[in-house]
Amino acid sequence: RAKTLGKACYQVFDTAMHQHAQTQLRLETDLRRAIERQEFLVNYQPIISLTTLEITGFEALVRWHHPQRGLVSPGQFIPIAEETSLIVPIGLWVLKESCQQLVTWQQMLGGETVPTLKMSVNLSVKQFSQPDLIDRIDQFLEQMELQGHLLTLEITESALMDNPEAASQVLTALRDRNIQLAIDDFGTGYSSLSYLHRFPVDILKVDRSFINRIEDQDNGLRIVEATLAMAHSLGMQVVAEGVETQAQALQLQQLGCEYAQGYLFSKPLAAETAAGVLAQPPAFSDLLSRR
Ligand code: C2E
Ligand code: MG
Ligand code: MG
Ligand code: MG
């Protein structure tokens, strides 16, 4: 009896696996055509200074508008894009698109003032190990007459740790161009801050899972506190990811965290919506006033 049950279970499992594999395969085929069919778009999530409560920049987040499936989340297609290396052309497209957007917004905000609005773009491990990455970035910056210091590249800890030698070279090249480097999802990898210090890291983005637990007075709070202290002593600035509540934001402000990003302030926005927000900035100070 157990044997038949086992077999039935196996078949159910097998069918599910098979369906999953087929879906992945179909997505992969579709992904290959998605660039030329212009199915990607970029959403922009504001990054807010906890000191001035102004928008200091945006993070570019790619979206795939699939003709049949509708919006496919990056969580679903980025892993496939990584595996197939399609992330390389997709990532370059995102980089170009978001840099162009930044230049447009700088012009909209008035060319007279010193441009300070920044753009933060995610780089995948695969992209990071492309030998022509720096050449492409140089091309974009030159074409768009964009200053390097207005661009931040976000990479995960594992991108650094997988190949520290290659990483070191790329990072030096980025530093030469004044491009900022941010470590994304900090705390979810296995690196230590002291190891990170060997690389020219400017910004630490503390993962949402830690910000979530900041109201836990014992562990949660202490971990964020310790991370901030170490980051600051190593000369890095800190962005808190996934800030969803006023209590979290107030706590982070009190701890001296420089920047915050999260649904409390804004979800990722379509480009036109983000432009509207820039033209008429919301009063984020209302969100943080103690009552
Ligand atoms: P990430 O770089 O850590 O981006 C932050 C993610 O958290 C985004 O998810 C954003 O929508 C979400 N988020 C922001 N604030 C909140 C909040 O308050 N609460 C919650 N629950 N979530 C929040 P998204 O856009 O789905 O992107 C997921 C991941 O996909 C990104 O994580 C990044 O690793 C990757 N990704 C997105 N765009 C690109 C890209 O252009 N290139 C590469 N290589 N990866 C990308
Ligand atoms: Mg990111
Ligand atoms: Mg992140
Ligand atoms: Mg994250």
TrEMBL record:
Which part of the full protein does this chain span, and how long is the full protein? Answer: 380 to 670 of 670
The stretch of residues making up the signal peptide is: none
Report which gene this protein is encoded by. gmr_3
Please tell me the species this chain comes from: Acaryochloris thomasi RCC1774
Domain EAL, chain residue ranges per copy: 24-282
Q: Would you tell me the protein name for this molecule? A: Cyclic di-GMP phosphodiesterase Gmr
Q: Which domain of life is it from?
A: Bacteria
